[in-house]
Amino acid sequence: MPPSASFCFSSVPGPTVSSEPLQVGIVLGGVAPEHEVSVITALQAAAALDRDRYTPVPIYVAKDGTWYTGDALLEVEAYRDLDALREDALPVALAPTPYGHLELLEDRAPGILKRLQRPALRRRIDVMLLGLHGGPGENGGVQGLCETFNVPYTSAGVFGSALGMDKVMSKRVCRQAGIPVVDFVALREGEWAGREAAALDECEATLDYPLVVKPARCGSSIGIAQVNTRAELDAAIEDALRYDDKVVVEKAVEALREINCSVLGDGHEATPSVLEEPVPSDDDAVLTFQDKYMREDGEAAKAEGGTKSAESSPEGMAAQDRIVPANLSDERTETIQDLAVRIFHQFECAGVVRIDFMIDESTGRVYFNEINTIPGSFSFYLWEPSGVSFDALVDRLVTIARRRHRDRNGRVQTYDVNLLAEKNLQGVKADEAP
User: Fold this and answer.
1) Are residues 238 and 284 in the same domain?
2) In the chain, which residues have pLDDT < 70?
3) DSSP string spanning 58-97?
4) Residue 315: what pLDDT?
5) Pair (247, 259) in one structural domain
6) Are residues 99 and 247 in the same domain?
7) Residue 18: active-site member
8) CB 40 within 8 A of CB 316
9) Per annotation, catalytic residue among 155, 220, 221, 262
10) 139 known ligand binder
């Protein structure tokens, strides 16, 4: 039975009373090394939205942190020239409302005459579809902004996003919960600078080569390296510190099979996808950014049940070589799927995530590797063979976001006591004696 058979999401009343399509803010870009990957992921999701029910509104976060909108931002060709894109797009600010949605307000800089000659943009956003990878877009920063503004959003909450983004804390939480992780050492930049030799000694005393070095809070295999010598370890740590001030050094699994599982749901219910086995290129001991996103046309093995993107549209994670479903026994498949759902709940996730595991074929042991709370391409290539089409997947993401928003707003959020009333100010005024 496909995982989708267990889903039974009830309809969720929205904040609007009209039957017009929901305005879905497609948030993409971001201040993070995965900027371009985010653009691909978000535009794929925007293309999958049912236009009878949803109107996508692009909200592009430039590399300098400025926010923009404009219909051209839904076209991938617009991103080939980022300077021209920003010249034509409209800078915007976000304004909260008391009605459970946001408003995009055009941010008019002085001297832009062509924009001053027409009414300023003002656009409602009913739900935020977060397609950001890394940085504030995935570590809880933007999630916190959405909660502060009281607007529904797709993705895990602040806690799950922050925890999932930090590989060190993720491993510690899983280890505490009895979920196996490989042995590792965590290094902060302050512990490395000026005492490199001592830090290298600690790594070598704790772990045996080969080792894998990663930035603790970066995705898309950016800054990752496998090393076999002290000199390589030194160089890999230095490189990883270019992306983050915390680094993970972990024991490499030599008889390695990487197995990934996506999970879709929330605290009420969660369902695992089929499993995948990513395939690194022949020259790489670990998956690289190039393996995931930069395969030439015809080189990548398509996910079973997947569809080819338009010629002008990058395929994102769908371009990576992978075996779907992974060639594992039913028993091992079920074990990994059960672990994935357990981790999903442990991290208090919502929406769609991808959880990456490692199998040591020499021992048969399964290890948690990392969790991606906004996975590349929203892992649609794992849901299509699981019986959930891409348009159904994004529809469920919006449904989950609105249900969580409804649940959150159904709880007491204020306490009806005015501590600043006159009778409560006694003893508070600075000029009164105690």
Assistant:
1) no
2) 1-18, 109-119, 219-220, 281-320, 413-415, 417, 419, 422-434
3) EEEE-TTS-EEE-GGGGSGGGGG-HHHHHHHSEEEEEEE-
4) 62
5) no
6) no
7) no
8) yes
9) 220
10) no
